[in-house]
Amino acid sequence: MAAQRFAFRRSVLDARWQARGDYRAVLNLKSCEMQHPWADELLDDVLAEVQVRDIRSYPYHVDLMRLLAELNGVDTDSVVLTAGSCSAIAMTVDGLAEPAGLLIAQEPVFDSWTYYAALRGVPVSRTAGLVGCPPTLDTRALRVAMSASPPAVVALTNPGNPSGLVIPLGEIADLADLARQHGHILVIDECYAAFSGLSHTSLIASYPNIIVLQSLSKAWALAGARLAAVFGAPATIDYLRRFRTDSAVSATAVALAHGLSTRLERLRMIWTDVAAIRNEFTERVLTDHPRWIDVGSVANFATLWIGGPGEGLRAEKILWEHGIRVRGLDGVPGMAGCLRISMADRHDMIRVADVMRDRI
Fold first, then answer.
1. CA atoms of 50 and 44, how far apart (whole Å)
2. How do residues 258-306 score in pLDDT, each as one tens digit?
3. Domains of the chain by range and CATH?
4. Minimal CA–CA distance to 341: which of 323, 358, 354, 328?
5. N or C terminus of the chain with fewer C-beta within 10 Å?
6. How much is the pTM?
7. CA-CA distance, 153 to 113, in Å (whole number)?
8. Beta strands in the chain (DSSP E)
C-alpha cells in the first residue's frame, strides 16, 4: 500500500521561498539599510558593551518593552516585540486578517503583506494610493474601499514606500475614524517615520482600532538584528501577545537596542544628517538632469521620476553595471518611470550622482 501524503495547506504551495541575495560586494542602495559613518561608529560603541550572557542566555524583554513604550508615549501593555517587521506583519495577518477574511491594502504595499495573506488564503483588496505622473498621494480609493467593505484589516505605510510621500497625521486620524465606523483595524507601518519626525502612536489613545508597526531596522541601524515593535490598544496587544512573537527576539538584539537607547541624541543627529544627504543628492542629480522630478520623499531614500515607462528599470541596469544596486520602480503601481535610491555617506552619494550624470 502506498504511503499517504501528509496534508499541506494548499495556499502555501502557491508561494515561493527565495533566499536573500548577497550584495556585500556592491554598493547596496536598494535595501534602505542605514549606511552612515556615524551609525557605524555608534554600533561599534554599542557592540563593545554586549556581554557573553547576551548570547548564551535567554532574553528578558520587559525592560525593552517598557523603554519603547515610554519613548512612544504609551503604556507597557500597549507594545509587543517581534523579530523584524515581517514577523509583525505575519502576526497581524494570522491574528486579525485571517479571522476577518479580508485585507485591504493601499498600493504600493510592502510585499510581505500580500505574501503572508497568500499563505493564509486571505483575499486582498488593493486600492490605488498614487495618482498622476510624477505620482502624488491620493487616499480616495482607500476611503471608498473602506466604506464599502465588511470589517477587515486595512494596511498602509506612512511615509510611503517606495514613494517616500507622507500622509499628514490629521488625515491618518480621519482614516482611523472612518475605519472605526466600518469595523476595520487600521495598521500603519511607520518604518521610515523617524527620518521625517513623524509618529502615529499618539493616535492610539483616541483610536483603539489603530495598530502601529515600528521597525528598528532602518532608523536604529538594526536591520541585521531583526527587531520591531507593534503598538496598539491594550486589549489588542494582549490578544496579539498570545502569538508569542517575542520568543524569536534574541537577547543580543535586546542588548543592542538598550545600548542604542542611551544614545538617542546621536541617533537623532544621524536621522537629520541622512535627510540632509538625501536633499543634497537630489539637488545635485536634478541639476544634472533638469527634466527629472523629485517625487518628494521624506524617508532615508530619494525617489525620482526620470521619464516614461521603463526608464526606472533602464537606470537600475546601468547603475548595476557600475556596482551600484538601486530599485527601478516601473513594476510598482503608480510609479512607472521612477527610481528609488537609498542613502549612504556623502562620498558614496557623490559617486552615484556622477555615474548618473555621465551614464544615464
1. 10
2. 999 999 999 999 999 999 999 999 999 999 999 999 999 999 999 999 9
3. 10-38+264-359 (3.90.1150.10), 58-261 (3.40.640.10)
4. 328
5. N
6. 0.96
7. 11
8. 27-28, 79-82, 103-107, 124-128, 130-131, 136-137, 153-157, 185-189, 210-215, 228-232, 293-294, 301-305, 324-325, 327-328, 338-342
